[in-house]
Amino acid sequence: MTDCIFCQIIKKEIPAQIIYEDEKIIAFKDIQPKAQTHLLLMPKQHFSSLAEASQPEILGQLLWQTKELAHKLGLAKNGYKIIINTGKEAGQAVFHLHLHLLSGDDLKEFNI
Ligand code: AMP
Known about the structure:
alpha+beta, HIT family, subunit A, 5-stranded antiparallel sheet, 2 helices, globular, binds adenosine monophosphate
């Protein structure tokens, strides 16, 4: 979608600190990190939220690449958290399905 900021990052129309990318999934640093490590992972295909995702396999790939990336970055040892805000009341601000991958000491205050 042309007016979607994450689609613009995916198309390299605006810059981001990209950490991982394959044919279907991209991961980049959150611009306003809420933890020592704060990455956003998402499908390159535009779905406005998890509620609108229509392909089970893309959700599997998203979760799989999150696990792989967490392992590669050495986050699994101390632990990490994943969050998918879905809808306005849940705090979703960018309407392109994405997952927050958070890790670091500062997460101790962040429990539900
Ligand atoms: P959410 O509230 O789940 O929709 O999260 C949106 C996230 O996108 C927030 O944590 C923002 O800091 C982040 N964000 C917004 N614009 C950018 C950008 N241009 N590059 C990286 N992260 C961004």
